[in-house]
Every structure is written in C-alpha cells, then in structure tokens.
Amino acid sequence: MTATTGPVAAHRSSPDDVVAELGTDTATGLTAEQVRDLRERYGPNTLPRHRGRGLFRRWLDQFTNPLVIVLIAASAVTIAIGHYVDAGVIAAVVLLNAIVGFVQENKARQALDAISDLVRMDCHVLRDGRRMVVPSEELVPGDMVLLDAGDRVPADARVVAAHDLKCDESALTGESRPVRKSSDVVAGDVPLAERTNMVFSGTMVTHGTGTAVVVATGEATEIGMVRGLVASATAPLTPLTRKLALFSKQLTAVIMAIAAVTFAVGMLRGSAATDMFIAAVALAVGAIPEGLPAAVTVVLAIGVVRMARRHAIVRHLPAVETLGSTTVICSDKTGTITANAMTVAEVVAGGEFYRVSGTGFAPDGTVNHAERPIHPERHPALMACLETGVLCNDAELRRGDDGWQPVGDPTEVALLTVAAKAGLNFTDLRRQQRRIDVLPFESSRRMMATLHEQQGGTVTGHVKGALEQVLRMCRDALDADGAVVPLDASAVQAAAHGLATSGLRVLAFARYQPPEDVRRIDEAELPGTLTLLGLVAMADLPREGVGDAVRACLDAGVRVTMITGDHAETARAVAAKVGLGAATGPVVVTGAELAATSGADFDHVAASADVFARVSPEQKLRLVESLQRAGHVVAMTGDGVNDAPALRRADIGVAMGDIGTEVARDAADMVLTDDNFSSIEAAVEEGRSVFDNLRKFIAWTLPTNIGEGLVIVAAVLLGTALPILPVQILWINLTTAGFLGLTLAFEPKEAGIMRRTPRPPSKPLLTGGLIRRILLVSVVLVVGAFGVFELQLAAGMAEPVARTAAINVFVFAEMAFLISCRSFDRMLPGTRNRWLFAGIATMTALQLAMTYWSVMHLLFHTAPLDVSGWLMVLAVAAATYVLVEVDKAIWRRGDRRAEYTTG
Ligand code: ATP
Question: Locate the Cation-transporting P-type ATPase N-terminal domain: which residues (predicted)?
C-alpha cells in the first residue's frame, strides 16, 4: 500500500516524454522484469480499506440506545436505594449487552467486507509486447493500459492514444458530463477537470477506446489522496432496519409512558416507592424490543453470506429485502442464459455453406465443404471472410503451457479459432496488416470496423456486425471464386434466417477500399461502399440448469423475459430451449416493433412478450419503467456501459462479475460471480428465505416483550408481588434473543418457498394472521407466568421459588414457540438446523444453573424448584406449542394460508 509517484505534471509533457521518463514503450509496454522491480518498489495498486466509523466510535454507539440509557439510570437509582447486587448485575448486563452487540455488528461487517472482495477488477495491459489481462492491483507506474468503454480506470494515467475516448469523472470532480480525452499536451497548472490528457483512477470510461501510460498507483492517485481526507460513515442501513429502529423508538416512548402511569397508579394505591420504581424499570426493560434492529441486521448479513455462496454478491443491503419480492426477471441472453462459449458451427461465403467441426476455443477441428476439409486456396470468399474476422477483432488466442489461452470477447475468440481451423495463421496476418484505425464495437452500434495498412501501403477496411447493420451498408458481394458480383440481399437474409432459427448467432462480414489518403474510419461514409464477404454462425448453448431455474421462477410466480441485442430468431430458438413461453412458444418482439409503439400499446407489449430482440439500451430502460408502472418489482441484468441507467432504475439491477463492464457493476445492486441466470433464481429464493426468517424472528420475539410488560402491569394493577424482577427480565431477554431467537436466522428454506406468489414490498411485515398469533402467545405467556407464580405461592412456596418458576415459564414457553415458529403454517417434524439444537441445549443448561446454582441465586434472586414447579413450567410450554399448532391448523383449514406465506 505504498504511495507511488510518476511524473508530477504528466499532462504538461508530451506522451513520448512521459513514456521515456517511465522507461516503458508504447508498442510493447513494460517487460516482466521491469514489472517485478516496480512492484517491489511501489507495492500493490490498492487503497487502504475504507474503515468507516472507528472501532471506538462503534463501541460507544452501543451505549446510545434508549434501553441502555434507561438501564444505566436504573442502575444508579438501584445503588441509591442500597441494592448493590442488583446494581452490579444491571451494570454487568449493560456491559455484556454492549459486547455482544459490538461483536455481532463487527462480524456482520466483516462478512460483508469479505464479500465485496469477491468481485475482482481486471484490466487490460500491454506487457512484453502482448495484450494481457491482469488484476488491477498488480498495475505499476509505466504500465500501458488499454481502455475500453465500460472500464473503470485502474490508476492515474497519461493518455497516449485515444479514439473517441470519454470518461465520467463525477466520482472525482463532481462533473457529471463525460469529459473527452485526447493525447494532446495541456499547458499550465490546470485543475484536474481540465487535464483532458489524463485519466484518473476510479473514474469510468463511458465511450471509445484508448491507451494510457500509468503514472501513479495506489494512494498516490488523485482518488487515493481524496479518500484520505473524506472518511464517510455509511452504516449498512436498509429501509427495513430503519423502519424497525423507528418502531423501537416509538415503542420505547409508549412503554416509558405506560411505566410512568403504572408507577403513579401503584403509588396511589399505596405501594412503596422503591417497589414501584422496580416495577417501572422491569416494565421498561421487558417491553422494549431493544435487540430487534441489531438482530435484523444480523439476519440480513447472514442472508448476504448465503447468497454469496450461491454466486450472487449483494452490493446494497436493501436488495436482500427486495429480491424476495421480485415479480419479473429481465435477463440478457448471451453469457447469462447461454454459456457464452461461442463455437463457429457454419460459415456461408460466396453462396456456399461450410460446416465447422470441433467445439470450444481450441482450434482442433476442420472447416468442411461437402463433408470434406477444405483447401483454402480453392475457397477465396471463405478465406476473405475469415481474414476479416481475424483483423476486425480485438481478441487474442495463444498457446500457453496449459493449452490455449483466450483473451477477450468470446465471439471474437471464436473467429480466431475458426480461422486457425481453416489453416489461417492469424498472428502472421495481423503482423502483415497493421491496424491504423478502429471503430470499436458497441451494443448500440452492433458492428465494428477496422482499417489496415499492408506492407505495400494498400489500405483496406474490414467490417463485422449484426446482419441487418452490415447488409444495409453493402454495395456488392463476393462470389465463391472471389469475384465481385451484385448483392442478392434476399438470398443472404434467407440463409441467415435459416441459421438463426436453429439458435445460432449470426454475424456478417464485409470489407471496403477507402478512397486514397483516407486513414480514418468515417462511419457516415460507410453505407454503399462495402462488399459482403459472408456470414458466420456460432453456437452458444444454454447454460446447464437454466431450464430448471426458469421453471422454478415460473412456479414462484416470477415472470422471466429475455432481453437481447441478438437476432429475433436466434433469441426465439434459445428461449424455447430454456422453456420460455412454454405452451405456445415464446412471443418475440423486436426493438423495431417496440419503437413503433407508445403509451398503452407499449405497456401491453411489455407485459406480454417473452423475448425482446435487437433491443437498444434506451428501450431496456423504457421496458423497466413500463413494468414498474404495472406494479412489477423488476430484476434486470445488464453488462454494457449503456445499460447503467436501466440497472439503476430496476428494483434489482444485476451485473456480471465475469463479462460485463465496471460501469454496469457500479450501477448494479447485485453482481453474479458466475454470470449465470440460475444464480438470480437462487438469489430470489434466498431473498424470500431471509425475509421469512426475519418475520419469524420478529413473530418469535415480540410475545416475550408483550408478555413481560403485561405481567408487570397486571401485578401492579392487581396489587400483587411482581412475578419477575428487572434483573430476571434482563436475564431472559439477553440470553434467549441470542441463544434461541437468532438460531432462526440459520433456518433452512421452507419447502415450497418457490411455489408461493411474490410478496408485494408495500405489504407490512406483520399482517392480520401473524399479529393474531403474536397476541395469542403473549396471552399464554402472561396467563402462564402469572398463574404459575400464584399457584406456587398458593402451594406455600416462597417468592424466589415462585419467581424462578415464572422465569422458567417464559424461557421454556419461548423454546416451544421457537420450534413452532420455524414454519408459519405447517407442523415441521425434524430439523437440519443444528444451531437450534445447540441453542435449546445451552438455554436449558443455563436455566438449570439459574435454578440450582447458588451463585445465580445470589445474583438473580432465584431458588431451586421442586417437581411440581417443573411440571407447571412444562405444562405451559406444551400448551404454547399445542395452541400455536392448533392456530396453524385453523389457518390452513380456513385456506388463509396465503396470509402467512405471502402476507
Ligand atoms: P445479449 O444482449 O443477450 O448479451 P448480444 O451479445 O447479442 O446479446 P450485444 O452484445 O448487444 O448483444 O450485441 C448485439 C449484436 O451485435 C449481436 O447480436 C451481434 O450481431 C453483434 N455483435 C456482437 N459482438 C460483436 C463484435 N464483437 N463485433 C461486431 N459485432 C458484434
């Protein structure tokens, strides 16, 4: 993490000077040896992890919650009235509570931090004359980085070549409009925003391509220096935790008021002030669900960890809540539904069809004509088409020690593979024909063009892209013998259609001769100048398991649509293979058709189609908006720079960890480490499970608070002794929340969780059925605890004995309720949740200690129980279990199951 420096004013020097000063080379980059030395000298290109609030601040935060303040006050008053042991116990509890909260919070934070490390950031560099992909932390000053639209700039660098390069520097300068970059010298000591020949770490490339030489890495970068100054404190709050925190606060206020009234009523009835004070404290301590917000954060964090295990990295905690409510998943095709393992299956050139054998990117196979391997010299149109595929191409395919190593876009790698299968030496070809200009591929453009100069000085342009795009620019075509002939567009379209209907991805290839002296590509000048060379059709099979995942989504009431830049027929075939539009075959709408609709028509189409093909990023955004208008919760995938607005707009923006751009990842709520559609389905499932567990935890915890509160109020109103004392309530709340309640966070998913309909996010956490159950259990606890206390007294037991019985009623009834709580509507037999067993066993041991160990007697005013006491305790626990199960049965019979499951 050492700071590094490069030329201080690189923007004022010419690119050549900067490159020379750094001892590197524009054409070949650094050597491996230089990189090693520089890395030793400058360290990794990383920033120290952003710590947020300091440890000490977070420790202090533990003491700012209202309950703790009440407790500290109570402890002070307890000392004043001479109850030193109680005061000590209360103080110890406050401390213990703070420690537990602090440890839990840190653990949750660490888990989240570790997950954010899972998304690597790679960058393309030139080293030893070769283009390679390296993790951005391995960059050193002097590295030549190759920038492409969608990349995050990995270090501060001086631009040496730029093609239409624009960067979004808002992260650094606050300027939201992209800044155009060039290699021109900028004179004077201008501010960052005006250093148009520099690119800065952490900013985004929004447009074009370029090469830049790294001048500063790690903390020496501009962003590194700024970050040192700003230490923001963003706690992982979600709408839910915020709502619960507010709920807790309001509840605290209400309970304090009730406590005050109880105190006053007691005094009026002539009770002693100290007794009433103790009762009021007991009420406050018991009824305030102080642990709720923290427990919710822990449950969410556990959910995040589970999702990460299933390849879905949640970047924003609220996404966990939203995921479970998803009603539509709009997924890309290439790489998400399909494997993006492109293999050229057929080539059509000069009207002839060629089949290609062998799969994968290793060039093991042949290009065949009439079932026989071709002789390249007899198929000039084919070879011209494959040559264009090699030249108009940024990918690399090298033979390394462990076999063939592809670098770059799989579509382009496949073109190198097929060229090699046809006997073409692509490395030589690229050396002979130097690239002098490029029009990079962009989804919105759907094509790419390059300009090459041969040794004799001849300049040729090569174009590849979507058929419609290329065909409309073609003037003529090559026939099988390589002669230029008039273009038969309908024959070409028919051939492409035939290939696409079997699910193949079709690309068209063309070339042109620019006018003399033209050494730049002018997109506007291309139409009417190209000669069509042929079509290449690639197979890209659906990923394994996607069909099942689609089915699981449909069962779960989640609609799945495919949104792709690819051809309608290719998309239709792939969609059918994975089971979209199962009954009648997928309904396919193209971008052109979408463009022709508006208003209600657009909404109608958006609501009914299974596949949107040849869709532009702007249309993706319109689709999200239309679906949201119809009340949908939309999860949308995207990988390109232009997808960022749609990703931000979607309720769950999903980006890819492997392919896809940093810009898209930055805009997303969730990143898939394996780019697989099935992982979205898994995340939805986990989201539902987290939400379920949260509701279970809340449903489990509230009756204890209500029960304890009511017991105290009842005792004061009836003028009887308190069945439980403040320290005893503290004990119950502190131990059961951790040992019992939190084990619900580890509950496995309920069977059938993906057969429910999605839960509207606006629906409150606690709906009618659940509230009824919470009240039912609260009443059982009050009646049970109060009843057992009085029965024990009536049987001649001393108050400490009767209180010990009442405490055990609470704890054992909570255990029984916990076992029931694992499902809202079904009686669950066994469990795979080992934490649950461990929790119940620990809690039982603690209660035995509390009941029989003399030290605990001293601290908590307890006493040993006899058999009658235990029988009463167990009877209430059993009654709790039975009553809740009966309640479930009534619910099922009333077929109001939906209220629990989806409500
Ligand atoms: P999806 O949107 O599902 O990821 P896609 O990869 O087909 O599918 P885009 O990347 O937007 O979507 O590509 C749109 C079209 O542009 C493709 O169907 C193809 O015809 C063409 N195309 C794709 N990659 C290249 C490339 N590297 N060079 C030229 N044209 C390309």
Answer: 9-83
